[in-house]
């Protein structure tokens, strides 16, 4: 602040650009108390500068200073404020004479996000964390006024806020302009305010709220009474845009479900798990499919439904046994359905007079994978599965990696029989005994596939191991559920000498294609292009690499790659040395031969303007887009849109938050895998219990949470394995950070997650 005041006293406007460059165009006044002279000096710098990143978190500013700064926001590229300071700016903006200009400037510098949650307080010590913010009618009127002048969707975050119904009602006129994040309490309040006397206004409110929530309504772990259910009926009756509805853990009974049932067919994914629904609701639940056969999923886990036969006839229903009066005499009978249907998620019996029986899906897949479901019929002679033969969850491992002559190879010594999953490639090996695995990715020869009507659908793996040590191989695929509906779509090409054969899968899961191992050599996923998934979405990934800065031109580039999700990071990174990998959520759905564009407000230039996504699997991984930025840019927002201008991926990228690669061109995964369990060791038993509870409900990057039955007996190491298997390494780091913040262990985020990232 002293250098800013010196320039102000000297009125040396010509020195301002030089001063800002020395600051990296960042003016950090966080946690300071500014007087009138400080404010005048700041205004002087802003007046003669440009592109300033202004940090006013927890800064004390005189009232007249707020207004002065507001009118200089055209010189500010990014404004950081805490929620109390944000409210002051909002009120000042709403009260000024030029609302349109002031509102546009404020929203632009806030990256179109009005964040009134506690997210700006995560660095504060736990004892200093603020209480929920109580919003007044004046606050909501001011917010509404600002949003009225918004030219694009703005994110409005009201988590950690308390609002009275009459005050919350003031926001409905602008909900169609926002992407809304709220607590469950406020969400229930909004839902109760949807029905009004006018049918037209009720419809308008329902449509606005549905749009603000992105078509997804999550009321899980909320107690729904008759009033709340009535409001939900009005919501469902009045709009068609709701695609996902989560009513799990809501204490729903058959009586409360009955008025809802005639409207629930409108959603694609419905979660009714962990409620008090009984067999009395079977007929009305089955009617959902007769009304809307295109429903994707109805989850009924852990209800009081005893007779499940009717539900088993429809793949859309997901259901398991729980809380029934079943004794030890039924143990053998309970094991029989697992041999008939290995995709059952959970069979659990528990009680004072029963012994606990818990068989999870991943544990029995290997034991039952050789059974052809189409040939096995339930009956008294159905063979049982011996619980002693049931396998454990796949063990995740990080292989030894060698980079010789630009060829990366992987080595791992399996300690014994079981399922072993390679974190870097996604391959799963079903081993019969201790053995050493050697594998690498080699180049496809498409000329061999084309005469057979096949095209590559994944990397080609050259795998070596001693004879009879590998029972089955699980190859990761990038097909979405919609894309995999075609029978005979995927197979595995098996190369031996100069011949190639195509192996029919034993099973295709959501993530892997499983085949028997005839003889180890080169294997790769292929698909029949006559049944191809090219007109369907596939699971893709967006990878960002920050190149070294060009000091001559004062620029730096971000290389953006759109790739199938099955391509390992190790294979991509070797082509992008000495660039740094930028850690952002990478998952998105893409479509072959569809044109995409990338948008970045801070870019000097983007090349090319548009590009097609192609299902290429090496050997080279060139950038799809190159974004040129001013040197020392700290943070950018990147958006990818398809040819219909629909957003398919958007994230903020912190360019100071990158992971360096080791000499062999990969992320130092060993370090991360060692540190993650250590972080959980710093949690006491109660905190670790809370961590796992949040983990089973936490949705990250549109991925489903880890299922409760997987986590129930998981220790700290098992929990990390499950996180890495579900989210990959980079996702596991982000999810751990999110949950640690939620359970108020910001100290671990600051000390250990930050150390891990850097």
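Sequence proposed for the structure above (758 residues):
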């Amino acid at each position: 602040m002293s250098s800013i005041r010196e320039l102000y006293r000297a009125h040396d406007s010509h020195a301002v650009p030089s001063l800002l460059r020395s600051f990296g165009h960042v003016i950090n006044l966080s946690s300071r108390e500014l007087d009138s002279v400080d404010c005048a000096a700041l205004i002087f710098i802003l007046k003669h500068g440009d592109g300033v990143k202004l940090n006013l978190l927890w800064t004390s500013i005189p009232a007249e200073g707020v207004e002065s700064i507001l009118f200089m926001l055209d010189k500010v590229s990014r404004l950081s404020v805490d929620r109390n300071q944000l409210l002051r700016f909002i009120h000042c903006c709403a009260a000024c004479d030029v609302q349109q200009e002031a509102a546009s400037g404020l929203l632009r510098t806030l990256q179109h996000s009005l964040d009134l949650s506690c997210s700006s307080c995560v660095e504060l010590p736990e004892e200093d964390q603020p209480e929920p913010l109580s919003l007044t009618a004046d606050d909501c009127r001011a917010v509404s006024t600002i949003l009225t002048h918004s030219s694009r969707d703005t994110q409005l975050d009201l988590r950690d806020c308390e609002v009275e119904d009459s005050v919350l009602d003031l926001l409905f006129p602008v909900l169609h302009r926002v992407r809304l994040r709220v607590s469950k309490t406020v969400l229930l309040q909004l839902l109760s305010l949807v029905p009004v006397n006018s049918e037209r206004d009720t419809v308008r409110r329902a449509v606005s709220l549905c749009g603000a929530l992105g078509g997804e309504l999550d009321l899980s772990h909320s107690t729904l009474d008759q009033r709340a259910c009535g409001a939900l009926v009005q919501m469902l009756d009045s709009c068609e845009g709701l695609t996902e509805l989560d009513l799990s853990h809501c204490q729903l009974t058959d009586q409360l479900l009955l008025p809802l049932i005639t409207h629930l067919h409108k959603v694609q994914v419905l979660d009714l798990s962990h409620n008090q629904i009984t067999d009395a609701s079977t007929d009305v639940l089955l009617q959902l499919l007769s009304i809307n056969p295109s429903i994707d999923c109805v989850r009924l886990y852990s209800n009081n439904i005893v007779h499940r036969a009717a539900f088993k006839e429809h793949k859309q229903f997901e259901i398991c046994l729980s809380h029934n009066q079943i004794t030890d005499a039924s143990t053998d009978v309970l094991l029989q359905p697992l041999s008939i249907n290995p995709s059952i998620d959970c069979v659990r019996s528990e009680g004072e007079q029963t012994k606990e029986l818990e068989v999870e899906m991943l544990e029995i897949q290997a034991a039952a994978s050789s059974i052809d479901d189409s040939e096995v019929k339930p009956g008294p002679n159905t063979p049982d599965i011996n619980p002693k033969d049931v396998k454990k969850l796949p063990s995740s491992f990080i292989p030894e990696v060698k980079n010789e002559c630009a060829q990366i190879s992987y080595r791992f010594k399996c300690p014994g029989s079981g399922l072993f999953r390679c974190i870097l490639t996604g391959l799963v090996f079903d081993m019969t005994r201790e053995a050493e695995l050697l594998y690498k990715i080699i180049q496809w020869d498409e000329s061999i596939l084309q005469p057979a009507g096949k095209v590559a659908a994944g990397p080609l793996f050259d795998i070596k191991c001693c004879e009879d040590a590998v029972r089955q191989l699980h190859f990761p695929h990038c097909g979405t559920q919609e894309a995999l509906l075609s029978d005979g779509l995927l197979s595995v090409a098996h190369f031996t000498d100069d011949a190639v054969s195509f192996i029919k899968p034993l099973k295709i899961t959501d993530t892997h294609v499983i085949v028997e191992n005839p003889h180890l050599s080169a294997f790769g996923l292929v698909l029949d292009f006559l049944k191809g998934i090219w007109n369907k979405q596939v699971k893709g990934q967006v990878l960002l690499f920050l190149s070294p800065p060009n000091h001559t031109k004062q620029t730096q580039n971000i290389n953006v790659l759109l790739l199938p999700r099955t391509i390992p990071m190790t294979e991509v990174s070797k082509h992008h040395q000495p660039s740094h990998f930028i850690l952002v959520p990478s998952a998105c759905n893409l479509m072959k031969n569809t044109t995409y564009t990338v948008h970045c407000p801070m870019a000097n230039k983007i090349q090319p303007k548009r590009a097609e996504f192609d299902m290429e699997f090496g050997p080279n991984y060139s950038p799809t887009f190159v974004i040129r930025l001013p040197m020392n840019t700290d943070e950018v927002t990147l958006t990818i849109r398809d040819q219909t201008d629909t957003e398919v991926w958007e994230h903020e990228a912190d360019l100071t938050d990158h992971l360096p690669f080791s000499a062999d061109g990969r992320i130092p995964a060993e370090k991360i895998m060692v540190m993650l369990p250590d972080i959980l060791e710093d949690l006491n038993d109660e905190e670790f219990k809370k961590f796992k509870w949040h983990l089973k409900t936490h949705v990250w990057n549109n991925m489903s949470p880890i299922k409760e039955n997987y986590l129930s007996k998981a220790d700290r190491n098992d929990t990390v394995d499950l996180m890495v298997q579900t989210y990959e390494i980079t996702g596991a780091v982000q999810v751990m950070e999110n949950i640690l913040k939620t359970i108020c262990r910001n100290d671990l985020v600051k000390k250990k997650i930050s150390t891990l990232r850097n």
